[in-house]
Amino acid sequence: MPQLVFLTVFFAALLALGGCSSEPEPGPEPQKTYRHSMDGTPTGLDPAHASNVYAGFLVVNLFDTLYRYRYLARPYEITENLAAGPPVVSADGLTYTITLKQGVRFQHDPAFDQGVGREVSAEDLVYSLKRHFDPEVRSRGSWLWRDRIQGMAEWQAQGSDYDQPVTGLRALDRYTVEVRLTRPFPQFVYTLTTAHSALVPREVVEARGREFGTAPVGSGPFRLISMDTTRAELERNPEYRREKIDLAAEGFDPLRHAGLGLESVDGREMPLVDRAVVDFVVDGASGWVSFTAGNEIQYVRLPPDLFDQALASRSPPRLKPDLEQQYHLHVTPEFGVTQIVFNLDDPGIGYQPDPEANLRNRDLRCALRKAFDWDQRNQVFYGGIAQIYPGVIPPAVPEFDPDADRSSVTHDPEGARQILQRLGSAENLPVLEYTYNSGVAQQRGFEQFRGQMSAVGYPDDKITRRVFATFPDVSRAASNRELQIWVYGWTMDYPDAENVLALFYGPNRAPGNNVTNYANPEYDRLFEQAAAMQPSPERTAIYRQLNQMLIDDCVSIAGVTRVRAYLTHRDVIGVPDRELVGGYFLRFVDVVETP
Amino acid sequence: MMWQRWWERVRQDPVTLAALVLIMLFFGVACGSWLGLIGGGWSDTSSLLRGGFSAEHWFGTNAIGQDIFQRAVFGTGVAFQVGVSVALGATLLGAVFGSLAGYFHQRAGDGLIGWLMGVIESIPFYLLVAALAFAMQGHNLAMYLAMTLAFWTTTARLVRAETIRLRQMPFVEAARTLGVGQSAILSRHILPNTSHLLLIQFTITFVGAVKAEVVLSFLGLGIQDGVSWGLMIAESTSDLLAGHFSNFLVASISLFLLVMALNLLADAMQDALDPRFSHPADPGPAEPSPAEPSHGT
Fold it and tell me: What is the pLDDT of residue A29?
């Protein structure tokens, strides 16, 4: 009998426990997570140091910029972000007055009064722009505004004291900023979309010091949970202003964006996901494996080597049916230009005091350009879908000339041979030194270049290589004018051809961005004239004239714009764009349950 | 006598004999490449991108239209060049430092050399090469120098142990009594008696260097001017994605065959020349046996 009682009590207790555990517990709602990938690592999360696209991608999600690009509109269009409206520009184009949205708050942080994020104000913009001119910050974005803002140079010369005013940069009231420029700079508003222009809170920056770059605090749609060399994890910023998506205003086109499910995000509050995990996957094959695993990254760049296996057609790019059922394909041209540049300071191929020798070197450069086969480079390195065009103005900007003469990008080995013969015997030809950073693809690039040059009679032993360990080493050597021939890529900062034409403007010569050290007074004069003009047919004509000058002087072998193919899982609702929209895309992305 | 013993050993074992023939074949190809008779067109490009096997291109072409056969031939020359240079350098260094340390056993020189070996062995091999490559700004010799620096210590330890044993032998005592100088004792009486060790270590280091070159070239730290099997394997990562395997197969099969043949030969050499292996009944004095370089791959 005692045994029976014991068993009864025992099972009763078990049932009771079972009953307790079967009662549904009100737990937290499942988090919606989007897993992104990037093929590189960020330089740092301090806006002053966000000098690569990977850093920029994260920074614009952690901080606010005054302006951004519309999510879906192409060609790119600028729109307000933290600014309440477009800037008011004075008649002389020198004064910009910008009003900020009210009620926007920074994320909570102990550095704030009582640890509660305070409201973002005009003073924050003033402080954030000043930081770029504080030598201690070592900003990598100061070039955007150098010599452009009145009084900034003087402020810097006087010791960069943040409590001292800058005549051309001041807060008129709590929400209004006035910027006075030294000369007209129609592209100024574009600079306020860059990650460098993001607003940072002074008290947190001063409290964190150098650690601000690893523990950032901003007013963006996400906040940082963690970051290491392989991954960054972000979560929704609960303090983010309650802004809703207006798909029409973002440039939604029912035809162009058909089948992507974008309609479902219209009218919803940003950001749409609770967590965003960004994996840094440099190797294309590894990215592909992770993407196709199904439960890892949901976005990847399709490596050109996989085009044959993944694409049913390249023009227009279309996925094979089995892949189309699982993934969305997004094809976007990069926003920039890649070219093989010559250092004109190099006496072997560049400027010479003797006009005849000068002309001879120009002919030599033109011969190398004729010998270069863009189509083959496109096939090998860009999957055959890159855009090749004469000069440096890419198709993505309105100043591009679709009817320009294409002879400068046409493979003409016979023309190259004739020029080389005219230049004399092989012994007279200079030794060419092609520089690249260590890597298989880069080495292949060199070998292809050498193969094409030797095919037109350039002696093999006169085409040498110089290899640096890393890409920044190459950039440094280019800035020091140590290189002769190398591949130079430029991602544009804003949709205006001025940004690429400035690469050949005399005063910008190395260590500035004019790494070719091109020096042409007529070019400089026209560039200065156009740089102060608002967009117009007249300005476009000047831009095209400048482009033609570069072609005629054979300053580089140009140009190509890589076209990138991206894939997203079908459960991802979004149109990724690594170019100008960049990280702004993350606030619009949604993840849905798929059947 | 030593060589005769080795040849007898090789002759009796058909597998080792086949390995020797294979090595001679590879060596012949390497000589042809050095003399410019074959493989000279390794860098020429063509419009046939990732082409298949054909009469014109026996093993097909790579992504930029280069002939894979010519590149494999040139790579054979590079493999031997790296193997011989590094094995020679490491063996020489190991012999000199090992014999000095052994001869001056338990004196300051021995301690200093022991400390130096300890320091070098404590640095991971690839880290050492990367540091040297960075310091030498991608110079061609960086890889050779780093491998030699990393590999000599194993040889030195073995030679040191053998020298400690030899310096107590009667013939060395006799030479010392007759007033023969220390350098003469080392060079005429001790070092020649370590030659069996040096030969075996040379072969083993050769194998280690060939393998290490492939790994280093794959990582972008290896050969800077030219092509090697490691570079071919590195290139093939993108070829594999695109479904082209010849670059990978040709380079890795070549590497496999040469390394396998060299290993078999090294084994035969060890069996024939090492006293412990040739006289199994007599265990002899306790000493470490020749081993692969501790920093090897």
Answer: 62
How near does any CA of chain A get to the CA of B66, in Å? 9
Token pair for B187: 């060079």
Mean pLDDT of B251-269: 89
Put simply, whether A380 touches B (Cβ < 8 Å) is yes
Q: How far apart are CA A96 and CA A186, in angstroms?
A: 10
Dihedral Cα A537, A540, A541, A545, nearest 10 deg: 180
- CA distance linking residue A404 with residue A389, whole number of Å: 8
Residues B231, A285: C-beta atoms closer than 8 Å: no
User: With 0-12 CB in 10 A as exposed, 13-18 as middle and 19+ as buried, what is A335?
Assistant: buried
A308 has a chain B CB within 8 A of its CB: yes
Q: A121 is written with which tokens?
A: 């104000």
CA angle B261, B265, B266 (to 5 degrees): 115
> What is the per-residue pLDDT across B136-150, written as a single tens digit (0 to 9) for each?
766 778 888 888 988
Q: What is the mean pLDDT of chain A?
A: 91
Collect the ranges in chain A with pLDDT lower than 50.
1-2, 4-8, 10-24
Do the chains contact at B243 and A308, CB–CB below 8 Å? yes
In the beta sheet, which residues pair with residue A170?
A178
Taking an 8 Å cut-off on Cβ atoms, the answer to whether B241 and A455 are in contact is no
Q: Report CB contact under 8 Å: B220, A439.
A: yes
What is the pTM for the complete model shown? Answer: 0.78
Class of the CATH domain delimited by A44-215: alpha beta
Rg of chain A (C-alpha set): 28
B221 near A CB under 8 A? yes
Q: Which secondary-structure segment (H or E) carries A451?
A: helix A440-455
Distance between CA A567 and CA A205 in Å, rounded?
38
Q: In chain A, what residues touch B63 (CB-CB under 8 Å)?
A: 380, 444
Q: Please give the pLDDT value at position B277.
A: 55
Q: Sort out which chain B residues have CB atoms less than 8 A from A454's CB and list them.
A: 44
What local confidence, expressed as pLDDT, does residue A325 receive?
A: 93
pLDDT of residue A27: 57
CA angle, corner B110, sides to B105 and B115, nearest 5? 145
Residue B282 has pLDDT above 80, yes or no: no
CB proximity under 8 Å: A 284-303 to B: 284-285, 288, 303
Which pLDDT tens digit goes with each residue over B113-138?
A: 999 999 988 988 878 877 776 677 66
A379 and B241 within 8 Å at the Cβ level: the answer is no
CB contact, 8 Å: A470 with chain B? no
Question: Which residue from A minimizes the CA distance to B137?
Answer: A468
Domain ranges of chain A: 44-215, 336-561
d(CA A285, CA A262): 29
Q: Please determine, for residue B296, whether its predicted confidence score (pLDDT) is greater than 50.
A: no
Helices (H), B124-282: 125-135, 141-166, 170-177, 182-184, 195-218, 229-241, 246-273, 275-278
Please state the CATH superfamily assignment of the domain spanning residues A336-561 in this structure. Answer: Dipeptide-binding Protein; Domain 3 (3.10.105.10)
Helix extents (H) in B35-137: 68-103, 108-122, 125-135
In the A/B pair of chains, how many CB contacts fall below 8 A?
71
Q: Cα separation of B212 and B201, whole Å?
A: 16
Tokens of A292: 């196709």
Tell me whether the CATH fold assigned to A44-215 matches the one assigned to A336-561: no
**Average pLDDT over chain B, rounded to whole?**
84
**Interface contact flag, A440 B234, Cβ < 8 Å:** yes
Question: 10 Å Cβ neighbour count for A370?
Answer: 24
Comparing C-alpha atoms, which of A139, A206, A503 is closest to residue A338? A503
| DSSP string covering A513-546 | SBTT----HHHHHHHHHHHTSPS-HHHHHHHHHH
Q: With CB atoms and an 8 Å threshold, state whether A448 touches B45.
A: yes
The answer to whether the Cβ–Cβ distance between B238 and A441 falls below 8 Å is yes
